[in-house]
């Protein structure tokens, strides 16, 4: 099994186009300790030929251009005029940073689009996604807890994690932490190896801990280091948990929640622009690495 990190940042990427928080300012000032990151997405394959895209980032075109394994030329013959190693797409929720890239895939390319019924209904309700020609793009509802094989040799299972509806669907009191169809994690299995991709999660529950026990790889929500990070940075009023993202540090944080579970490699993904783990050598990065975690980056390849 091969995993390829196309984008490692949260919504808006890093740096955000209009942000001068402490971490973004380092980038604008040319500080070598930080590097630009696009919005979160990974690709997975069991054979290196047929690839599953997990979440379609708004930065998808740029990500494909700099990722040879999923470029149009990978595996194409001279007679082909349209080709892509991407045979399927799975979206884990309806957030803009995970579905907007579907619009990039409108050029009459055959692929299957997977998602829970709830998320596919959100996509279907927006007429702009009708640019995905149904003659080319088949939408396939995913049943929670039922494994399927979107590309040859790669078994996939979606499972509910604590989350919420996308921001643009919030109305009145928001149920943050509900487990249903609107936010899922993904188990990927091939050749006796297992990886988990959980880019959005509001809390680490005991059932989630048990699910990922002894996994070869865990790519987990690293949106904020501290729960009140955005208010501290002066760029927002919401806490991480209110946005549906468990913080890395503090009580109930993810840094310690997965200790002692026999996981081979743990890495944070979906990292917000305010998060100081983006800074090489920062105290927060050192704390994460000392606890056995890695900070994912665009172009990172993982072979469990």
How would you explain this protein's 3D organization?
This protein is α/β, with parallel strands linked by helices and 304 residues long. It is built from eight helices and 14 strands. It has a single domain, classed as Ribonuclease Z/Hydroxyacylglutathione hydrolase-like (Metallo-beta-lactamase, Chain A, 4-Layer Sandwich), CATH 3.60.15.10. It has a seven-stranded mixed beta sheet with strand order 6-5-4-3-2-1-14. 16% of the residues lie in helices and 23% in strands.
Concise synopsis of the structure shown:
Helix content is 16%, strand content 23%.
What keywords describe this structure?
Metallo-beta-lactamase, Chain A, seven-stranded mixed sheet, single chain, alpha/beta, 304 residues
Low-confidence residue ranges? none
Alpha carbon gap, first and last residue: 7 Å
What's the SSE pattern?
Answer: EHEEHEHEHEEEEEHEHHEHEE
Summarize the main sheet: 7 strands, mixed
CATH class: Alpha Beta
General form: globular
The overall strand count is: 14
CATH architectural grouping: 4-Layer Sandwich
CATH topology, which one? Metallo-beta-lactamase, Chain A
Count of DSSP-assigned helices: 8
Computed Rg: 18 Å
| Fraction of residues in helix | 10-25%
> How confident overall, as mean pLDDT?
96
Biggest sheet: strand arrangement: 6-5-4-3-2-1-14
Percentage of residues in DSSP E strands? 15-25%
User: Domains counted in the coordinates: how many?
Assistant: 1
Quick one: CATH superfamily? Ribonuclease Z/Hydroxyacylglutathione hydrolase-like
Structural class: alpha/beta
């Amino acid at each position: 099994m091969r995993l390829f990190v196309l984008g490692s940042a949260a919504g808006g990427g890093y740096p955000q186009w209009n942000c001068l928080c402490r971490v973004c300012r380092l980038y604008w000032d040319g500080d070598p300790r930080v590097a630009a990151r696009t919005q979160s997405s990974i690709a997975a394959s069991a054979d290196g030929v047929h690839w599953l895209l997990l979440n379609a980032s708004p930065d998808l075109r740029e990500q494909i251009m700099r990722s040879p394994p999923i470029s149009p030329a990978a595996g194409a013959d001279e007679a082909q005029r349209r080709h892509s190693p991407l045979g399927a797409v799975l979206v884990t929720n309806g957030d803009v940073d995970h579905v907007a890239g579907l619009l990039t895939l409108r050029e009459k390319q055959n692929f299957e689009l997977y998602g829970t019924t709830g998320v596919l209904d959100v996509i279907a309700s927006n007429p702009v996604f009708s640019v995905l020609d149904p003659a080319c793009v088949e939408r396939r509802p995913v049943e929670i807890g039922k494994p399927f094989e979107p590309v040859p040799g790669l078994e996939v299972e979606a499972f509910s994690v604590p989350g919420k509806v996308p921001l643009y669907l919030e109305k009145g009191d928001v149920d943050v932490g509900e487990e249903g169809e609107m936010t899922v994690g993904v188990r990927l299995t091939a050749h006796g190896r297992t990886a988990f991709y959980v880019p959005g999660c509001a809390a680490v529950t005991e059932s989630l801990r048990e699910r990922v026990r002894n996994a070869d790889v865990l790519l987990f929500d690293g949106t904020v280091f501290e729960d009140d990070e955005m208010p501290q940075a002066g760029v927002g009023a919401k806490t991480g948990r209110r946005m549906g993202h468990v913080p890395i540090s503090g009580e109930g944080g993810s840094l310690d929640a997965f200790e002692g579970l026999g996981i081979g490699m743990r890495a944070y993904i979906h990292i917000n622009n305010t998060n100081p783990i983006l800074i090489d050598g920062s105290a927060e990065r050192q704390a994460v690495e000392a606890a056995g975690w890695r900070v994912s980056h665009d172009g990172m390849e993982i072979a469990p």
